[in-house]
Amino acid sequence: xxxxxxxxxxxxxxxxxxxxxxxxxxxxxxxxxxxxxxxxxxxxxxxxxxxxxxxxxxxxxxxxxxxxxxxxxxxxxxxxxxxxxxxxxxxxxxxxxxxxxxxxxxxxxxxxxxxxxxxxxxxxxxxxxxxxxxxxxxxxxxxxxxxxxxxxxxxxxxxxxxxxxxxxxxxxxxxxxxxxxxxxxxxxxxxxxxxxxxxxxxxxxxxxxxxxxxxxxxxxxxxxxxxxxxxxxxxxxxxxxxxxxxxxxxxxxxxxxxxxxxxxxxxxxxxxxxxxxxxxxxxxxxxxxxxxxxxxxxxxxxxxxxxxxxxxxxxxxxxxxxxxxxxxxxxxxxxxxxxxxxxxxxxxxxxxxxxxxxxxxxxxxxxxxxxxxxxxxxxxxxxxxxxxxxxxxxxxxxxxxxxxxxxxxxxxxxxxxxxxxxxxxxxxxxxxxxxxxxxxxxxxxxxxxxxxxxxxxxxxxxxxxxxxxxxxxxxxxxxxxxxxxxxxxxxxxxxxxxxxxxxxxxxxxxxx
Length: 512
Known about the structure:
The protein is α+β, with helices and mostly antiparallel strands. It has helices at residues 4-14, 49-67, 165-190, 220-229, 272-280, 307-316, 340-355, 412-429, 468-493, 501-504, and strands at residues 21-27, 33-38, 127-128, 134-135, 138-143, 196-202, 208-214, 231-234, 252-254, 259-261, 289-292, 297-302, 401-403, 453-458.
């Protein structure tokens, strides 16, 4: 049998998960057991290329289904949406609670924008051509962040000494807030409930930027006006001069006070609420950071069913399987070596991100002589567990895909179920029975009401369990058999059958 590395490569080519999760399922009625392989569900190609590609294809379907709708989709249930954050954006608020609010007045250096009552409509206008044909165009929008210094063609700063790494790191950390504020402003300026499918991707210089499919057509002049007028103020304590920089003299946990204290004087550090109250009481206080979008805005009109629409969807989802640092690599797999200048650029930005606070609960506030919100023992500056501090994220700790609540009216799980339903319908029509694991559902009960199937996690190589090689080999064979069945079913059904072969590779888990 081939070695594990060869099988992993073959599995990736066949669309099989390379790091599966094993579950032993015991039928309490019959006493029989079987091993079920579940895909890991990773969204990064370097972790599992097969699962990452499956996730990307699901997002492609979600984007395509909602972009050019000619009717308002139903309002989803609150638990069925996991994409768009709720934020009324009525004021520049402190980011711990909605109770501590500064002035709602706009900044004097920000232009005004129209403010209309937002209707419940989610679809765009209909345009009629001279020949009587009607169109309902949509848009593709790209937003960027401002420049932090001139960069070379490979993305590294031309002069690292003058490149504004601090501002770049803070902008990356608070970019999701700026994007959220932009959609709020755009809805108020247009007067309808603008719906979007957006992805956050890294530029070669490692600054995040936004690609967005927008349902409906909006005047380009108005969009540029909203971009120029959108900003987000971070009302946090001052971030300029850390108080505690010596790793051997960081604030210590006081068990009796349940708070952190100065290592030299023993005095308790100001609480998070006290630090914010001090800012609120100072009429001359300035925000710790203000983030704005860059001046470069790309806007394209897109008509449903055109080649451009398909190209744009591919462009929207192109980098979803990549990490933030991958654009600096020279090949498509992100494995080629990068130049010393680019590596130094990553190191410098990663070091800046490591020590800046990412949220009110971040341990890095101890360096500034302030207790994080909800403090607990064991916090250590520079070791915050938020992914914003990871080298692969470089400050961007939020979601990479942002979808408005009424884009399709469905959750991602519902889109996944739709893909599976198409596959099963095609197979059923062709007289092919696909393996169905619903019979092993954890919700199935015995006559006395107890769970019939008991699931327990195991690992390849466990005693009496399958080896990794046997497991992957079986999964590859199973996947090939399913694919052949689906291609046969499509042939029988005729040319109108949708080509969802990618779905066939991910709808069910093989049993060993």
